[in-house]
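The record is given unchanged here:
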Amino acid sequence: MELYQLRPDGRVLIGRRDGVRELGDGGPGDGALLRFIDDGQVAHYLVGDAATSPQNPSNATYKLGLVAPHSAFTPHAHGGEHVVLSLGHAVCGLWDADARRVVRVPLAPGLMVRIPELMPHSFGNRGPRRLPILAANTGYGLDHPDYAVTAAEAERRGDTELATALREVEHSRTADAVTVRERLAARLRRLAHALEVPR
């Protein structure tokens, strides 16, 4: 799992189990920052690569999702890698197979989580308003049976290990709330939006 922080100063930090680094610092496992149309502009692929074309498709889907207030998705695992950018206050409960426990990652606006294929998880909205998210995944649209495998489906398929992990994620879900600081920050963001975006 990777957690991306898109900071207001233009830096992008990537958190992994082994620590935090800045995108483009040339560290281990750093994907290349590629020239992006013009000199001085750079890009980092999350899905696909520079060779993606109609003849060499990335087979990726991108969605704008709207998550109901104070709700969470049924725990599931995607057949392909998944990337979710939170545009509000969210939480992602992820099954850590090495530690054999659920890790809860609180997400603020501008944090993006990268979830490997078949990692059990549940994404929830901690806020009182509908939460917009941007989601991209490899290989599967909403209608595909491997898009979101639930515990019941894993049991039906005979995958007891996956089903058990998904049940653990389900049992760990709590009613996470937005903190006082986060509520204040949300009000300030709404004020900034009113000042910056013409009506």
Notes: The helical segments are 151-156, 160-172, 180-196. The chain has three helices and twelve strands.
